[in-house]
């Protein structure tokens, strides 16, 4: 075999593996919508089978794991010491590399289904950004990969009987946080390097929003879709300028929006006091409440868990476990199945939907108009965090342990 051909073959295999490998750097992954390009993932596992490693997690929280290359980061709370803690693990073996205490303060009031460490961190490969609550103020802080604090910022106050669970979003040189609440309701962007506030948008209609924005190129411009301030709105993430908005459809939001590129539709559900699922054309200006809502339904509308979307189907679930498959173009329900109480959000990878529930069971579904289950996988403990996918592995945080799931060749 010629050396040039051999080298070219090795280079092709190396670049192919590199091209399909993805980090999972923030809430709902690189795209912020629960999707991954990784393909060589397990379909079957249990508490023993295809478990690469399993490690005990100190404290408790619903924060989901994030992954950058060989490091995994997790947010947790020690209710005995009243500390909020950032953890860093080795992805290869599950060893805890370091942990650093972010805050020691009286635990705030919260909803019984919430935790004291529910917001998911974000990383750009240089620093880890995390947001938490000291009982009065929203705190956003940056740490390097050795656990050293680089900066800390208080962009505003927060007030909610449900507690705190907002996750930062990264865009270019900015860390963006949703501070929508009954207090100093706002949204703000901070400089990633030093934490200085770049822009802050006050909200005139305080409510509860725990929704994490998504950022997309739509209608030829970069848009950040924010659910809060009793509206669904598009902002310019560079300046905080509002581009368009849809009133309501009710007061509160929990889940994150998704964007269907094939049909150019934003899919958003409100949470309380009514749940409305809307499909919106993202090419408007100003108030588009009566002009750009393509369809609206209460059937299949979701509350806490965020959905996943294929080209033609949207997969949603309520906390009661009623999973709906809807037609993206018109909102018609294709099928409904009961998969058990669920607060964690589904992921889409390997051309499959991985749908977890609170009992630690992940149902693997083949997308399509027929309900087709390929596997039901148990980890042996309860969970509320959402899965992360990277390095050909699925990382799941249970109530007590962190699991790395992969193919045992």
TrEMBL record:
Signal peptide: 1-21
SMART domains: PQQ
Organism domain of life: Bacteria
UniProt keyword list: Signal
Residue ranges occupied by any Pyrrolo-quinoline quinone repeat domain in the UniProt entry: 87-336
Pfam families to which the protein is assigned, alphabetical: PQQ_2 (PF13360)
InterPro entries: PQQ_b-propeller_rpt, PQQ_rpt_dom, Quinoprotein_ADH-like_sf, WD40/YVTN_repeat-like_dom_sf
Protein name as annotated: PQQ-binding-like beta-propeller repeat protein
Lineage: Bacteria, Pseudomonadati, Bacteroidota, Bacteroidia, Marinilabiliales
